[in-house]
Amino acid sequence: MQVLSRFYVAAILAVMALVGAGAAWAGIGQPSDWQLGPQDAATPVAEDILQFHNILLGIITLITVFVLGLLIYVVMRFNARANPTPSRTTHNTLLEVIWTLAPVLILLFIAVLSFKSLFFQLNTPKADLTVKATGKQWFWSYSYPDSKFEFDSIMLSEKERKAKLDKDPKADVPRLLSVDNELVVPVNKVVRVQTTGADVIHAFAVPSFGIKIDAIPGRLNETWFQAKREGVYYGQCSELCGKDHAFMPIMVRVVSEQAFAAWLEEAKKKYASEETPAAVTVAAGQ
């Protein structure tokens, strides 16, 4: 029994070390080197998902350690050398009731938490801003219906990315995630994101926001987020949509209300004056 107690202590310490390391390695807005666990949460929905994930991780860890402990105990206690005369017991009503009810109660607990989380994700509050994201092969188009303008967001080529880094070596221009025209939203505001597809099924996903929703041709889906801090957050199309599926990233810049108002006025002039969308040349540029 002393050996078993030491095993439990070692297992608990190992789990605590892994959880702590994961929290340290997980970045916010984009993947981090040696990341363990989800990206840090930047919205209430992402915080709820991360909390649910941690609860499930705790439950499955306890179950795994408990079952492993039982196996070790059975092997040590009931092997032929330690127990030469085995028991002939075939039924134990109390044990059968326990191992039937315990999993049911655990699953009910998980179900309640998951339904609560799903309702929170799908029940869109009153929006301060609406943005429409249209998935195309292979880039995103964003429109601001209230301001009546639209633009394409295309991944930077390696040449364009290196040119930015040459100008500013400290610039945050991650490979395969940076774009020419980013989606800009204000901080602490409820943003409704409507999604659709222009050709095939795509999926709009930003891990730090806790959002992931299909963009289906002929159908308008919607999700929402409320970014709690300023910064740049990245995502990608997460539906296998063709040969350049890996090259249609999502880049969202969260700014202050004043900065967003200034950007909005500039964007109205910039994108309203463009007669030929940049997306026309995307096939030749990739």
Structural features, described:
This protein is α+β, with helices and mostly antiparallel strands and 286 residues long. The protein folds into two domains: 2-82 and 90-122, Helix Hairpins, CATH 1.10.287.90; 129-285, Immunoglobulin-like. Helix content is 41%, strand content 21%. The strands form two sheets. It has a five-stranded mixed sheet with strand order 3-2-1-5-8. A five-stranded mixed sheet has the order 4-10-9-6-7. Helix 1 (2-25) packs antiparallel against helix 2 and helix 2 runs antiparallel to helix 3. The longest helix is centred in the N-terminal third of the chain and has 34 residues, at 44-77.
Could you tell me the CATH topology label of the largest domain. Immunoglobulin-like
Number of strands: 10
In CATH, what is the class of the largest domain? Mainly Beta
Order of helices and strands: HHHEEEHEEEEEEEHH
Instruction: State the strand order across the main sheet.
Output: 3-2-1-5-8
